[in-house]
Amino acid sequence: MTVIDELHAMRDEALAAIEQAGDLAALDDVRVKFLGKKGSLTQILRGLGALPADERPAVGKVSNEVRAALEAAIDARNSELSAVALDARIAAEAVDVTLPGRAHPVGTRHLIERITAEISEIFIGLGYRIAEGPEVELDYYNFTALNTPPDHPARSLADTFYVKDLSGDVAAVTGESDVLLRTHTSPVQVRTMEREQPPIYVLAPGKVYRRDIPDPSHLPQFTQVEGLVVDEGITFGDLKGTLEHFVCEMFGADRRTRFRPHFFPFTEPSAEVDVSCGICGGVGCRFCKGTGWLEILGCGMVDPNVFGFVGIDTERYTGFAFGMGVERIAALKYNIPDLRMLLEGDMRFLRQF
Amino acid sequence: MLVSLKWLNEFIDVDLPTEELVDRLDLTGTAVESVKKLGEAMEGIVVGQIVEKNRHPDADKLWVTVVDVGFDEFRSIVCGAQNFEAGDKVPVALPGATLPGGITIKKTKLRGVTSEGMNCSAAELGLAGDSSGLLILPEDAPVGMPFAEYHGSADTVLELEITPNRPDCLSMLGVAREIGAILDRPYRTPGAVPSETGAPAADEVRVAIDDPDLCPRYTARLIRGVKVGPSPEWLVERITASGARPVNNVVDITNYVLFELGQPLHAFDAATLGRDGDGKIAISVRRASAGEKLTTLDGVERALTESDLVIADPKGAVALAGVMGGADTEVSDETVDVLLESAAFASASTSRTSRSLGLISEASMRFERGVDRTGNVTASDEAAALIAQIAGGEVAPGVVDAYPVPYESVTRELRMARLNAVLGTTISPEEATAILKRLGAEVEGGPHLLSVTPPSFRPDLEREIDLVEEVVRVWGMERVPSTLPAGRGRIGGLTPEQRWRERAGESLRACGLNETMTYAFVDPADHERIGHALEEGEVLVELLNPMSAEQAVMRRSLLPGLLRSVSFNQRRGVENVHLYEIGSVFQTTDGRKQPKEHTRITGVLAGAWHPAAWNAPAVPLDIFDGKGVLENLARELGVERLGVREAARPWLQPGRSAEVVIGKNVIGWLGEVYAPVLETFDAQGPVTAFELDMAALAREARGVRELTDVPRHPAVELDVAIVVDEDVTALRIEQSMRSAGGKLLDNVRLFDVYRGKGVPEGRKSMAYALSYRAPDRTLTAEEVEGVHAKLVRKVTSAVGGELRG
User: What is the pTM of this model?
Assistant: First the structure.
């Protein structure tokens, strides 16, 4: 058998083995066996030196052809087997995409804080800053400087929580005190006007306290947002326009507002503001007790006496103030059946917002 | 204020539909809180005629009647009354009717006989009169007519919210006046004058006012020989509709006039009042002496102070001026002569007395808002005439009238330019004048300046702005054009601290915590429960009038409230609880007036982040979840130096308790809540919690960050496990590694802490992945190995550890 015959025999054997290789590892074994450093082709070519010189080119040529043929066959088989392997892997890795995703629970904002932030955003958009003040207040800021002197009849309406006065001062009325839990965030108005000169455009959100027994529609601790504007040329019309803008932003552009004259010691003229009922559209239903209107806030032009307490010139400046209960808005917007849920910390309630 | 429209119609013709009247009142400042149709309470009660009256077969005292209830309907009704005969007309309650007492009539059987309704007595219908038998109606009563209609008791009662500045509206006359003004139509003023007989009142009564500042006017009338007894039906009806309970004719008349004219009156039994040496009843109006006692009409003995004003006779106080009468001098069935008081007391002192004693009455409510003293005598006359008419007394001639401070009207100026500048309107002087005149004011001048003299019943119209308010209220707020402020000097936004607070909340929510809110007033025992001792000189911020003993002090920490919420959830089967609250805590010391307030940011974690899922087991939360949350928070706020170090807190489990620091400054704490503390809150552990001071956090927060280059050359990562004693902290090992590794040590990651086989008791194996990197070149293996070997040598010797083989 000539060397060329040997080469051809080996080629045929190798091609058969390549064809038979069942996976990529077997194919690699075949490659090593025939084309590797110690493989058959190398073995055969090792005998090349013993051949006469004139035969060598022919053998060399054949051996190159065999190598090329085998390499091509291996590449082809490799592609085939790779495709099979990939298909197998894909088949094995398929999942049921309807399985639930991996949980990354994100926390929620408390409804009252969410609404407070929403209100703040509306007024920041109108150029207001956010002002804050203490929750345990002095009588002066909560009442007196808001034109509610100690014997004012509005005092007995306020259901105030009084705090023990440790300074030794004694209140004029038994059971009352100079120190109290603020009944509204209006004292922030006074503190702001003491500190700053007009123009003043501030919003004061915060906790307030009134002695109400907790029930589905009352809490002794709730949240109020109070607004104050003091500038030259501020009119009652400006107050109306501002609050109408607020109502549309907060409740929707289709809601109407109504101003009803009212009384607050620290504003004159004063009004209560109703928004048209969102359920019946103002015709009257159970939700609005048949009136078609829902009361949402109180407001008015800053009383000149209040300016007197903080030394603002009442002839040069006018202003308006308004206040609203955030829990009330929450109850109206989200139909909260029982306000007490807001203070329980029930995860099942909190996680709905 | 309850207003019967039937009664109101005696003062003013109100012919518009109730809905329209309600709207007009609402839009002019008198809020209508409810509308009650009184006839409705009588629904199902009709005029019936008894056509047969037979003995009950099984009961001696019962009758079986057949009653014609109109429209050819006949009912069999069992009846226990004895005062009727067949042919009588009586009120009949049909099945379904509800009596004023709340009883609903049903078809029923009485001793075996079916009864289809009830024949009613006056008392059963809530009417005055004899309750011992059926109410026999006149013969001409039309059978089948609704009883309310027949009786005329159909009425509409409006509940009005009268604001504190409008005392003048606390009466039927006042409301009529107000409606007259807003509808621009006339009203009628009542004013009966009694016929007088006998010796003049002044012969028997004298009045002295010691303190005219507190009592500008006091009038007394004497009515002799009254017969005290029940009031007639119309009177009972009127005062009941106004919200008072009938007492007796004399007292009921004083209440009637109170509701009618707004003037509180008081009737004394003249025989019980002390007299001077000359035999005259001597009334004095004076401040109480300290320690003076008076038993008021409600039977309570009150200790008075010098700030209380009393009506006194020579023996002592007989009434709390303007608030409540005394029990010893009240009108009773034996009363013969009545002394009738009609006075004006200062609002401030009435308000103070009524609040101090917790006594709020119809009278005190009116006096503290202000009573028009020019009406004292009119009211006294009206009441005296009614007493004479109803209780049969003789009115002594004259009114004993002490009037040291006569009313003087004051004229105020209203600048039309100012009015329109405040309102943003173009109201004409003619419109303003017309409105003010309708409200009872005298108006002169114009067109730029109006001189306005308000009526005596409007003490609230003190200033120009009050007149502006009156004009816009009646002119119509809805007509004021809406604008936005034109001012230019405003910039909206949050302060830095407010912004950081928002960011802190966002960061906690991103970590999975849910925001909540708890009560700021807590149980005084809460701080003992968590072992949160008062600091030197600190005292609790106590409420004087808490809702309950469990909510009597202001909180010093948000933890107790949040532990309550943990328990609330757990008791309802919610095991995974992740809550945070941002709120105020309060701190004070003896001698301090206003407490200090600090904003705290507090979180609690219990259970796992999520329940076990097919691809994620439920991992119980512990202190390191809390620490992870704080690390994220610190990153978000740019507080790079935030760290924790071991420190005890009484409410935290020893060994799982740390304080949170920024540099050397302690700003809060972190740990797992101590089991005995959890028990007192009925909560199940473990509960991880933290509390930080928001201001301290905001002070250190940084919005600006420095950019460092993203690494361009690869890192070489080498692992090392070092066995150390238990008390060697992770912080110490890491610090030692960083100092030994120098600039080339890029990152230290602890990936395992192992105790057990192969590691001696009392020691632990800490396994780290250390990555080495140079910013400017790729490190060679030799270079890294050299640094690493040196690091291992230095660290093992520094922390007393050895390389784990």
Answer: 0.83
| Alpha-carbon gap: A323 to the closest alpha carbon of chain B (Å) | 18
Please report residues of A whose CB lies closer than 8 A to that of B590: 166
Task: Tell me how far apart the terminal alpha carbons of chain B are, to the nearest angstrom.
Answer: 91
Q: What is the pLDDT of residue B40?
A: 64
| Cα dihedral A212, A214, A220, A223 sign | negative
For chain A (353 residues), the mean pLDDT of every run of 10, in chain order, is 82 89 89 86 78 81 87 91 91 91 91 96 95 96 89 69 90 83 95 94 96 90 97 96 95 92 94 90 81 92 96 96 94 87 94 91
Instruction: List Cα–Cα distances, A238 to A99, A303, B108, B480, B490, in angstroms.
Output: 57, 16, 66, 10, 15
Chain A interface includes B569 (CB < 8 A): yes
Q: Which pLDDT belongs to residue A41?
A: 81
Yes or no: say if B669 and B652 are a contact pair by the CB < 8 Å rule.
Answer: yes
Interface test with B, best of A139, A140, A151, A306 (most B CBs within 10 A): A151
Which of B26, B485, B512 comes nearest A231 by C-beta? B485
Closest CA to B526 of B488, B562, B573, B486: B562
Amino acid B673 reads V
pLDDT of residue B679: 95
Fill in the DSSP letter of residue B542.
Answer: B
CB within 8 Å: B485 and A108 = no
Q: What is the pLDDT of residue A156?
A: 61
Specify which residues B410 forms β-bridges with: none
| DSSP for B161-175, written as a single string | E--TT-GGGSSHHHH
**What is the Cα–Cα distance from B310 to A242, expressed in whole angstroms?**
50
Give the relative orientation of helices A56-93 and A24-35 as an angle to the nearest 10 degrees.
Answer: 170
Nearest CA in chain B to A318: B422
Q: Are B457 and B168 in contact (CB under 8 A)?
A: yes
pLDDT at B148: 79
Q: Is the CB of A163 less than 8 angstroms away from the CB of B469?
A: no
What secondary structure, in 3-state letters, does B26-86 show? Answer: HCCCCEEEEEEEHHHHHCCEEEEEEEEEEEECCEEEEEEEEEECCCCCEEEEEECCCCCCC
User: Is the minimum CB–CB distance between B290 and chain A shorter than 8 Å?
Assistant: no
Chain B hits for A173, Cβ within 8 Å: 352, 355-356
Q: Can you list the residues of chain B whose pLDDT is less than 70?
A: 39-41, 101, 128-131, 153, 805
Interface residue B31 vs chain A (CB under 8 A) = yes
Q: Counting Cβ atoms within 10 Å, is residue B58 exposed (0-12), middle (13-18) or buried (19+)?
A: exposed
pLDDT tens per residue, range B744-769? 999 999 999 999 998 999 999 999 99
Cα three-residue angle B690-B692-B693, rounded to 5 degrees: 160
Residue B492 contacts A where some CB pair is shorter than 8 Å: yes
Given this model, what pLDDT does residue A175 score? 77
Rounded distance between C-alpha atoms, residue B670 and residue B511, angstroms: 16
Count chain A–chain B contacts defined by CB atoms under 8 A.
309
What is the value of ipTM here, to two decimals?
0.86
Q: What angle do CA B453, B458, B461 make, to 5 degrees?
A: 65
Q: Which of B423, B515, B586 sits opposite A109 (nearest CB)?
A: B515
Q: Which one of B422, B509, B547 has the shortest CB-CB distance to A213?
A: B547
| pLDDT for position B533 | 87
Nearest to B487 among A163, A199, A221 (CB): A199
d(CA B48, CA B137): 9
Please answer yes or no on whether B352 and A271 come within 8 Å at the CB atom: no
In eight-state DSSP terms, residue B627 is H
> What residue spans of B439-542 are helical by DSSP H?
464-475, 496-510, 526-529
**For residue B169, which residues of chain A lie inside 8 Å, CB to CB?**
none
The model's pLDDT over B52-96, given as tens digits with 9 standing for 90+, comes to: 888 888 888 888 998 998 888 888 898 888 888 888 899 898 888
